[in-house]
Amino acid sequence: MEDWREEIWERANLFAAENGRTLIGQLGYGYDGSVFATERQSAFKVLRFQRLYERERDVYLRLRSQSVVDVVGFAVPQLIHHDDRLWVVEMGIVSPPFVLDFAGAYLDRRPDYPDDVMEEWQAEKFGTVR
Predict the structure, then answer these.
(1) CATH code assigned at 117
(2) How many Cα atoms sit within 13 Å of 68 on the Cβ side?
(3) How confident is the model at residue 1 (pLDDT cuts 50, 70, 90)?
(4) Is the per-residue pLDDT at 26 higher than 90?
(5) What's the whole-number average pLDDT of the chain?
(6) Three-state DSSP class for 64?
(7) CA nearest to 78, candidates 91, 62, 65, 96
């Protein structure tokens, strides 16, 4: 499909139909995919790429296994459902401030970036090299 947003929309509608959800609107979109609200006070994120879906899913599974509901005062949505075929993660709705985007996260390993790139990023974000 030429337009990836159309393909995301199709998978969103298929997920909603298969799981008894009604889409009530799009909450946002970006490089990783799109987020849609449902009538059940939930939202689901439809990811654009399988590797991003797997990262996002795995972070939510880890957070759930550790019963994490917030990180330093930022609410973390609770995982409701995920679909490995459609690359969808469904989560509860939370109030700001919140942490939502985990598609770029890495669990149990460093990202595959050269050391100098990681050092520069850490210095920019944290003011020091860790």
Answers:
(1) 3.30.200.20
(2) 18
(3) very low
(4) yes
(5) 86
(6) helix
(7) 91
Can you tell me which residue has the tokens 């970006």?
Answer: 30
Length of the chain: 130
Note whether 25 and 44 are within 8 A (CB). no
Domain that holds residue 66: 4-126
21 closest CA partner among 40, 49, 1:
40
Torsion of CA 57, 62, 68, 73, to 10 degrees: -60
Total domains, the chain:
1
AA identity, residue 10: E
Query: Identity (one letter) of the amino acid at 11?
Result: R
Q: Residue 100 CA to chain centroid, in angstroms? A: 6
Encoded tokens for 103: 């598609």
How many Cα atoms are found within 13 Å in the side-chain-facing hemisphere of 44?
A: 29
The secondary structure of residue 23, as a DSSP letter, is: E
Whole-prediction pTM: 0.78
> What DSSP state is assigned to residue 82?
E
pLDDT score recorded for residue 126: 74
User: CA-to-CA distance for 32 and 9, rounded, in angstroms?
Assistant: 13
